[in-house]
Design goal:
By secondary structure, the chain is mostly helical. The chain is about 100% helix and about 0% strand. The longest helix is centred in the middle third of the chain and has 92 residues. The chain is rod-shaped.
Length: about 90
């Protein structure tokens, strides 16, 4: 019976070591998960910031595009006025 108790004590000690090792592994995994969670949070913030900046840049680009379209019409009108002035001057010369 002493031998059986001694064997059980050894098995319990071995089980205790395995539990402690598992605990250390679990704590290391938990630290790694926390680190990755922080990294993902930082990445999420960076993506949100970049998305906001891209929306801002797109709005500015659309404004410039609209203004350049208006500018194009103004240039065409100025060109037509110059052509009209040239035609009038040529008509007066004749």
């Amino acid at each position: 019976q002493k031998q059986a108790l001694s064997s059980q004590d050894e098995q319990i000690e071995e089980l205790g070591r395995a539990v402690r090792n598992t605990k250390h592994v679990a704590l290391a995994i938990n630290e790694e998960v926390d680190l990755h969670q922080h990294l993902l949070d930082d990445l999420d913030s960076a993506v949100d910031h970049t998305e906001s900046y891209m929306k801002f840049a797109r709005r500015k680009l659309e404004q410039v595009s609209r203004k350049s379209g208006s500018c194009k019409y103004i240039l065409i009108m100025i060109l037509l006025v110059v052509i009209l002035a040239v035609v009038i001057m040529m008509a007066k010369m004749v």
